[in-house]
Structures are given as structure tokens and as C-alpha cells.
Specification:
Elements (H helix, E strand, L loop, with lengths): L7 H12 L3 H23 L2 H17 L9 H20 L5 H14 L4 H15 L3 H12 L4 H8 L3 H30 L4
Length: about 200
């Protein structure tokens, strides 16, 4: 269904009517802005169902808070509200997306982007953080994740038990996840790495 053509002045009038409880005004506003709001959510998430859910949540919030919300520019409000909901969703999903699998998938996405400056900054931060790990932990991490060596082989090379190697990897991963995850979440959103 084609959105109803209304201008900014009409948005203000509709919001005033919604504040007074007009379901009809809400439906008109929803009809007009749903498509753009959905596009905004979908381009960040690349998931139709999640995008629809977020748009629904934002419009539900507008209806539920109609008496106290003061919206002066609805398109700008929707953009910010959707972006914030996407950030919260990504933060919740960080446990679902294996940390290093996502990092492995990002370079291909970034090569297609107009500007890979964020990816370069991420790699610089990643390398700098790796260099702050204790020397033995750093070596174990690099052997496992950069050279693809199994923990058993690393243990044999370094004269350590396999359990020690695994513990060192877990500690390294925890430090990297805590320090780099906010930046990684931003990259995921910008480059559409969420499937």
C-alpha cells in the first residue's frame, strides 16, 4: 500500500491529535512513516523480521507515551529511535555471534564499503590490544587464531599442558571481547555483517 502523502505540518497536526487519543491520526502517521522507518531498520540489520519488530516497538512507544512525548521532527525522531533500538539489539545478540567468526567475516564486507577507515582503526586497536597481553598469552593466541594451530600442538611446541593453553586462550579472548566489542558492534551495524 502506497504511503499517504503528508507534509511536515501535517505531522505536527497528527501528533497533536494523537496526543488527544486519536487512533485515526496515529494510523495515518504510521501509514506515512512505516516504509521509511522499516528501511532504516532493515539497512542496519539485514533481517526483515527484526526490522519489523523494531519499527513496531518504536511506533508502540509513540502511542503509549503520546501524552508526554514532545516530537518536533518525526523523521529525525524515528531515525534516532530506530538506531538506538538496533544498538540495543546488537548488544543483546553479541553473545549469539561468535566473536572471532564475526571478525573473520568483516574484511569482505569492508572491502565493498566506500570507506574502510573504520576497519583499519579496528585492526590498529586489535593489534595494540593484542600487544598488551602477557608475552606467553600473546604467543598462544597468535599461534591459535592467526596460525590456525590446535591447542594440542601449541602445548607441545611451548612445553605446556593443553589445559594451560586453553586457559590462556580463554583469558585472552575475554580481554579482547570486553575491549573491542563496542567497536565491533558498530562495524557490524555499518557493514551489515549480521545475517
Amino acid at each position: 500500500m502506497k504511503p499517504i502523502e503528508l507534509n511536515h505540518t501535517d505531522d505536527v497536526l497528527l501528533l497533536q491529535q494523537i496526543e488527544q487519543g486519536s487512533q485515526h491520526a496515529f494510523n495515518l502517521l504510521y501509514e506515512k512513516h512505516w516504509g521509511n522507518a522499516y528501511s532504516e531498520a532493515y539497512k542496519r540489520l539485514k533481517d526483515s523480521d527484526q526490522a519489523k519488530d523494531i519499527v513496531q516497538e518504536v511506533f508502540t512507544h509513540i502511542w503509549l507515551k503520546k501524552e508526554s512525548l514532545r516530537i518536533h521532527n518525526l523523521p529525525a525522531y524515528l531515525t534516532v529511535a530506530i538506531r538506538n533500538k538496533v544498538f540495543k539489539l546488537v548488544e543483546k545478540q553479541k553473545i549469539i555471534h561468535p566473536f572471532f567468526d564475526v571478525i573473520d567475516d568483516l574484511p569482505a564486507s569492508c572491502q565493498q564499503a566506500d570507506d574502510n577507515l573504520l576497519w583499519k582503526e579496528f585492526l590498529i586497536s586489535y593489534e595494540a590490544l593484542l600487544n598488551t597481553l602477557p608475552p606467553k598469552r600473546q604467543i598462544i593466541f597468535r599461534l591459535h587464531y592467526q596460525n590456525d594451530l590446535p591447542t594440542k600442538e601449541i602445548a607441545a611446541q611451548l612445553g605446556l599442558t593443553r589445559k594451560t593453553v586453553q586457559n590462556q586462550l580463554l583469558k585472552a579472548i575475554e580481554k579482547l571481547k570486553v575491549s573491542l566489542l563496542p567497536f565491533l558492534s558498530l562495524l557490524i551495524i555499518l557493514f551489515g555483517a549480521i545475517k
